[in-house]
């Protein structure tokens, strides 16, 4: 049987009253009439997502799900019943999350970060908000400064909990977050700051070390150009003013303008920063 929960590129084998039958040369699956493209040819390749329909039969769709096998996504609960919760994942049939896979009881209308996995006992695609069981506790191969893919898990008083490369849990400290619109479920890039002896990982949303100075210097330079060569910011500016304008800390800002000053690209005066030339 074709693997459930992933996209397949299959060949159109034959047309019937109920839809197109697609094949990989070994297994066939139905693409129902409502998903059949207006123009197609027998023998043509088509990319589809395969999952189980309401009658637990493998079926193909051209709809794009919000989550695929082994991935994480922030999904809304359509309804709940005595068996569990049913989440909107962009397909006709909702994604089932049984009670035993809920980190806390799910409520209709609310969104939760879930992982999509294949239940080996039932051969069904199932969601789980108990995400820790799908993450590696011992990080390996990560180095300081390495660029990584992040999924925002949840936000606490300490900072932002993230999932790194779909494998590890990490933390971005609150005092190092300068973006205003970060929400659970967002996907973004980040950079490893430190892998601690206990396996915990500190993460930054911006480059760390010398490379970050160059990157942030460019941000200041771009903002100067967009502001007709002048920014009303100095070493004495309030950190919140710097964060509002440049989305960086005061410490990072001072390093950035120091770099630009040494390169003779800016002048620093009492009322602000001026672009040279």
Automatic annotation (TrEMBL):
Residues 4-62 form the Conserved virulence factor B first S1 domain. Residues 219-275 form the Conserved virulence factor B-like winged helix domain. InterPro entries: CvfB_fam, CvfB_S1_st, CvfB_WH, NA-bd_OB-fold, WH-like_DNA-bd_sf. It holds the Pfam family S1_2. Belongs to the CvfB family. PANTHER family: CONSERVED VIRULENCE FACTOR B (PTHR37296:SF1). This is S1 motif domain-containing protein.
């Amino acid at each position: 049987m074709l693997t459930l929960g992933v996209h397949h590129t299959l060949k159109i084998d034959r047309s019937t009253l109920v839809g197109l039958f697609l094949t990989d040369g070994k297994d066939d699956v139905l693409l129902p009439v409502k998903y059949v493209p207006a123009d197609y040819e027998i023998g043509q390749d088509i990319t589809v997502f395969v999952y189980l329909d309401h009658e637990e039969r493998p079926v193909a769709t051209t709809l794009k799900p919000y989550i695929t096998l082994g991935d994480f996504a922030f999904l809304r609960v359509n309804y709940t019943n005595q068996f569990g919760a049913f989440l909107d994942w962009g397909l006709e049939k909702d994604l089932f999350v049984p009670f035993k896979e809920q980190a806390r009881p799910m409520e209709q209308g609310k969104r939760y970060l879930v992982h999509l996995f294949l239940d080996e006992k039932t051969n069904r695609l199932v969601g789980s908000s108990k995400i820790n069981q799908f993450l590696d506790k011992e990080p390996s191969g990560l180095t300081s400064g390495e660029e990584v893919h992040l999924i925002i898990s949840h936000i606490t008083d300490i900072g932002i909990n993230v999932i790194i490369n779909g494998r590890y849990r990490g933390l971005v400290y609150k005092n190092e977050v300068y973006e205003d619109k970060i929400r659970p479920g967002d996907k973004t890039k980040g950079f490893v700051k430190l892998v601690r002896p206990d396996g915990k990982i500190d993460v930054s949303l911006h480059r760390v070390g010398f490379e970050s100075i160059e990157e942030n210097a460019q941000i200041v330079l771009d903002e100067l150009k967009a502001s007709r060569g002048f920014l009303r910011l100095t070493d004495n500016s309030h950190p919140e003013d710097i964060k509002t304008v440049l989305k960086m800390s005061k410490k990072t800002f001072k390093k950035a303008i120091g770099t630009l000053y040494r390169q003779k690209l800016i002048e620093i005066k009492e009322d602000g920063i001026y672009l040279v030339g």
